[in-house]
Amino acid sequence: MQRKPTPFTGGRMSHDRGMRIAFEELIEFWENVERIPIELLALDAMNIAKTNKLTIYDSFYVAAALMHKVPLLTFDNGIIKKHEELNVDIMQVH
Question: Is 84 strand, coil or helix?
Fold first, then answer.
């Protein structure tokens, strides 16, 4: 059985359109979040922040989602509004 991609989140869940995951999958994600090599994302995050006028904090999550080719969980209206131009998918928890 093939697993669904694990989403990245900035601690906010999406109320926007998109895919949905179960709460148990969110817990599994949080158990693995410490494995993200943040230093490898720094340059991408800085470019995303500058280009899209996002905070560096939000940009790290966008960069991580893009790097790992997974959706992003967020309530952040700035990211939700820009998710298409950021080329990042948004996911909801149900």
Answer: helix
Contact 48, 63 (CB under 8 A): yes
Tens digit of pLDDT per residue, the chain (94 long)? 444 555 555 544 444 445 566 777 777 777 776 676 777 788 899 999 999 999 998 998 899 899 888 899 888 888 888 989 999 998 865 5
Residue whose C-alpha is closest to residue 91's, from 77, 70, 69 = 70
